[in-house]
Amino acid sequence: MERKITTTLMLIVCSLMATAQPSIEWQYSLGGTLSDLVDQGNRVSNTMKQTPDGGYIIAATSYSNDGDVTGHNGPPSAADNWIVKLDSLGGIEWQHSIGGTADDFARGVDITSDGGYIVIGDSFSDDGDVSNHFGSTDTSDAWVVKLDSNGNIQWDRSYGGSNFDVGSHIEEISGGYIFIGDSRSADGDVSINKGIIDLWVVKIDTVGNIIWEKSLGGSGSERPDVIRTTSDGGYILSAFTSSNDGDVSNNIHPPPFWDIWIVKLNSIGNIQWEKTFGGSLIDYGSDVVETTDGGFILTGYTNSTDDDMTCNKGMRDNWVAKLDASGNIEWSKCYGGSDNERGKSIRQTPDGGYLLGSSTESDNMDVSFNNGEEDCWIVKIDSLGVIEWEQSYGGSDFETISNAILTSDGGIAFVGQSLSNDGDVSGHHGSLSEQDVWMVKLSTLTGLSELSSNISFFNVAPNPAVRETRFNFHLNSASNVLIEILDMQGRQIHALLNTRLPSGQHYVDWKIDNDLTTGIYIVRLIGEGIPVTKKVLVKNQYNH
Prior knowledge:
By secondary structure, this protein is mainly β. It has helices at 2-18, 448-451, and strands at 24-30, 36-37, 48-50, 56-62, 80-86, 92-98, 104-111, 117-123, 141-147, 153-159, 165-173, 176-183, 198-205, 210-216, 222-229, 235-241, 259-265, 271-277, 283-290, 296-302, 317-323, 329-335, 341-348, 354-360, 375-381, 387-393, 399-406, 412-418, 436-442, 455-461, 468-475, 479-486, 492-501, 504-511, 519-526, 532-538. 4% of the residues lie in helices and 48% in strands. A hairpin with a 5-residue loop joins strand 32 and strand 33 (492-501). The chain is globular. Residues 1-19 and 446-453 have low confidence and may be disordered.
């Protein structure tokens, strides 16, 4: 009878725990039989937004001309901007392929005050929908397209010079738009080039005329991610740099390595302050937003294990840093496991915490589960960076994320791309060697602390465990705490801790007995409220 009661309790606990992370309300694979993408390298973190009607607008790049995609311009070897409007349940309301006969890549979209949309990317075309291309079709221009509410082109304009110019992110501002890209040109629309590749910030009016433009950087290369408006009328931008001169200060890591570069501009594009962050290897910036206290939260990913990045847990980790209003680090943390993570977007949540959109290849440390290869990974952290919950989404193949947002109903939506047609992913178009855009809507945002009122973080590492492992947890207030080890039938194997602890972060080490059989065990942490559980794989070298 005792075993039955324990097992039943475990089933109840596991059922409650399953609701701690958001579940998928709906998901769609979007595209055709060729590749359809929203995650192209490092400059795509603003490819989806929620529209005022509760739907979504997506800026993607497509090689297809079947399935969900119609009107492709040029041969299948050439990419088009693919703009898709979804309703609130993920159904396609309209879609448009825009571009010319060469490659045209979409990298960002914003909703405009007239009910339309503004799209940015880069174009190699000089025909079709593309106007005023600079130079030859061997080089790209930044390309901005204004659409009406139904996706019809109202105007378009190419920006740049005779060399390579790329558009990355655009936002509507009072009287026009602000966009960021990178440039190798020093002619045409580009007044100066300071190195190999510069950041290029351009303010345009409502019909695309340039009001001012600025090249930012040093003698090396700078590559941008986002530019966002700030409450003082200026701008904050996230990039990465290999320079240590010119506009870039305090970069102690010379080429070929990169540092994260955060730059604060005033309303006319002059630098107010700039900061480099990183270590001795390659570190990339991905996203930055202003926080309610006047500071900033940024995310990127790091390969370094020194300087600003001593928290690295594996090969490549997410890195999140909270900055004050002057760009000084208030706190920073790495998130991930022993394999690769790539943080792409971050948003402040109504409770003062943050929502991190990432990709992960790990299945240990901070990452509780991997569906196969690479997953989309959503992480909720509190105001000090402590993980409240995390969840991986995907199938048995590769999924990567472009960005994650908070939705008007209190949920989460994210967009990425997928090669899978199993697990969380269904409806893949064409062969599994060609990627689809993957759009996912998650249920109302809940946190682990909402179910377990006193435990806001619980982690097991290393996992798998050989000789010993450590249980890390955070108590919101003082509490009696019991930690016990159970087998998969719910039987108690060991009571590791039973005492009262103060609020704060704690850790307990579990030295694994030599006679414990190799297998999966359940760690149960009971504070005040609903217990929390983790699975740990024990690989006992003495007893198989």
